[in-house]
Specification:
Number of helices: 6
InterPro entries: SSU_processome_comp_20 (IPR052575), UTP20_C (IPR057525)
Distance between the termini: 52 Å
Structural class: mainly alpha
Protein name: U3 small nucleolar RNA-associated protein 20 C-terminal domain-containing protein
Pfam families: UTP20_C
Order of helices and strands: HHHHHH
Oligomer: single chain
Largest sheet: none
Helix content: over 70%
Length: 139
């Protein structure tokens, strides 16, 4: 997709690509700022190359305006998701409590796996099943 975006940008030229610049920059920006553990470095390099190509193609001023608008939009979305999550915690405390229990349980499992990998002789106790009853609220 990134190669396609770069090819279309070069093919359309400077004047015809400017209206579509924010649309083209959105996935490129997302890839550059992603924090996933299994991130592909070639994809990141490709997006950086296409951004440099677009910068040369449309000029620094037009590129900067479009890039800043994409950045602002991404930050607004991130803030809105964070606000929604906080509101959901207040509006639905039972769902929030279930989510918190699940997160805590996953954290404990991760800790056990880490200890087992560091000390192969150590065997942590594991729960028998991951059924819905494990997530139930205990009164």
């Amino acid at each position: 997709i990134f190669k396609f975006l770069g090819a279309i940008s070069v093919d359309l030229g400077e004047d015809r690509i400017k209206p579509y610049l924010p649309t083209i920059l959105t996935p490129l920006y997302r890839e550059l700022n992603s924090t996933y553990a299994e991130q592909d470095p070639t994809l990141k390099n490709l997006s950086q190359e296409i951004i440099e190509l677009l910068k040369k193609l449309v000029g620094l001023e037009a590129f900067s305006l479009a890039f800043s608008s994409v950045q602002k939009q991404a930050n607004q979305k991130r803030a809105m998701r964070k606000k929604q999550r906080a509101l959901q915690t207040v509006a639905n405390p039972d769902i929030a409590a279930r989510r918190k229990l699940k997160r805590h349980k996953n954290k404990a499992e991760t800790r056990k796996r880490k200890i087992e990998s560091l000390r192969p002789t150590y065997k942590a106790k594991r729960p028998r099943s991951h059924a819905l009853k494990d997530l139930a609220m205990v009164e």
